[in-house]
Amino acid sequence: MKTKISTLELLASIMVFENGTAILFYLASDTKQDAWITILIYIIPAIILQLIYTSLWYNYPNDNIITYSPKIFGKYIGFFLSIVYILYFIYGAARVLRDFSELMLISTLPKLPLTLVSFILITVICYATFTGIEVLCRIAVVFLCIFLSFFTLSFIFLSTTPNALHLTNLKPIMHNSLLFLIIKGWPLITFPFGESLLFSMFYTSVTEPKKVRKYTIMATIFEGFILSFNCIMFLSTLGVKLASTSLFPLLQTFRTIHAGSAFDRLDIFIILMLLLGGFFKIGFFIYGAMLGTASLVKINNPKYLSIPISIIVLISSGLIASNYPQHVNIGLDFTIKYIHLPMLIILPILALIIVNIKKFVSSNNQRGRL
Questions:
Q1: Cα 249 to the center of its chain, rounded Å
Q2: What is the enclosing helix (H) or strand (E) of 261?
Q3: Alpha carbon distance 19, 13 (integer Å)
Q4: Over the Cα atoms of the chain, what is R_g?
Q5: Nearest to 38, CA basis, from 185, 140, 245, 165
Q6: Which of 28, 99, 192, 307 is 20 to 30 Å apart from 330, CA to CA?
Q7: Please, where are the H alpha helices in 64-132?
Q8: CA distance 8 to 157
Q9: Where are the extended beta strands (E) located within 141-220?
Q10: Are 68 and 296 in contact (CB under 8 A)?
Q11: Which segments within 133-219 are labelled E, that is strand?
């Protein structure tokens, strides 16, 4: 039976996926208190990126990125790139697993070994991916509603906490030029916005293909505003200096909430919400790797790949860095420049150029025959 995903499920899944780890960090930190403005600016390039991703798929509506790469780049180069994308999805899952395992250790379970925490998380995610992408997408809709409600309530509690919010921390606004914000904020186009390339693996399952572009753009716009608001919240609470040095500035922000004895310690609820976001991001990455591998080796049902790929992700998450600060530095520097940039930006643009050249040559050949 063909997998079916509604457009609403697609929108919710993209938002939950991009929000998964991006909400944890101080994005565009080089732009200081103007980071929230930089995020809003980069919604426009992110929309252009969605146009590129969906244009590639509309040229090959029955394929995903693994199966249309050989058709664009040729058999051998395309096959190599297909393998690279599968490895990229596995690497993405490993990074997020490490993020949330470390979050658990730092916030609630400091005496447990990292491997055990990662094993518990990956076991639950492995089962979820075994059930299929439809289940993940349906739960993502419910979780997005819960998350937005929780996020709104948390801001209300934060606003009512004495001396918690200081909007003066956002001043001076635009103390640097617009060009400065654009130059310093360029990593945003890769993380988090560019990571939605993963969903080109699932476009063939969407019940209304003609609306795929519309809903991916909507998801990008909504996510941009959420991340910008999130940035305003912890900059107003922590200030630029503390937000820059904190490993998890959002968690640090919510720990300042004091709204009566009933809502004095929201740590467990905050961590639970963050973990659920990480659950979806890891799950979608793993399912993308499963589906890609199944497409490559001609396996009809990708669910049987959930266990071996989850094991690879678990092992990789422990090997990618010796400690968490190193893991964060690698992710925000090396990964963005040398992995995200070519995989999410350069290769898709190059692929679209090649597709249009092939179409132009083909149309000229047809005219020549006439």
A1: 18
A2: none
A3: 10
A4: 21
A5: 185
A6: 307
A7: 65-73, 75-107, 114-131
A8: 30
A9: none
A10: no
A11: none
* pLDDT tens-digit readout, 182-231: 999 999 999 999 999 999 999 999 999 999 999 999 999 999 999 999 99
What is the residue type of 126? C
Cβ neighbours of residue 84 closer than 8 Å, sequence gap 6 or more: 343
- Under the banding of pLDDT at 50, 70 and 90, the label for residue 369 is low
What is the helix (H) or strand (E) element at residue 303, kind and residue range?
Answer: none
User: Comparing C-alpha atoms, which of 65, 327, 352 is closest to residue 198?
Assistant: 65
Q: Which of 156, 165, 154, 161 is nearest to 237 (CA)?
A: 165
> Tens digits of per-residue pLDDT, 96-130?
999 999 988 887 888 889 999 999 999 999 999 99
* pLDDT interval class at 261 (50, 70, 90): low
Residue in the structure block whose two tokens are 């300042």: 256
Quote the pLDDT of residue 263.
56
The 10s digit of each residue's pLDDT in 82-101 is 999 999 999 999 999 999 99
The answer, yes or no, to whether residue 260 has pLDDT greater than 70, is: no
Quick check: pTM over 0.85? yes
Residues 6+ apart with CB under 8 A from 106: 247, 248, 324
Sign (positive/negative) of CA torsion 100, 105, 109, 111?
A: positive
Is 236:170 a contact under the CB 8 Å cutoff? yes
Identify the DSSP state of 186.
G
Q: What pLDDT does 370 receive?
A: 58
Cα 196 to Cα 15, 99, 244, 307: the distances in Å are 9, 19, 26, 24
What does the block give as tokens for 298? Answer: 């001609």
The percent of residues in the chain predicted with pLDDT above 70, rounded, is 96
Distances (CA, A) of 273 to 112, 121, 126: 21, 14, 19
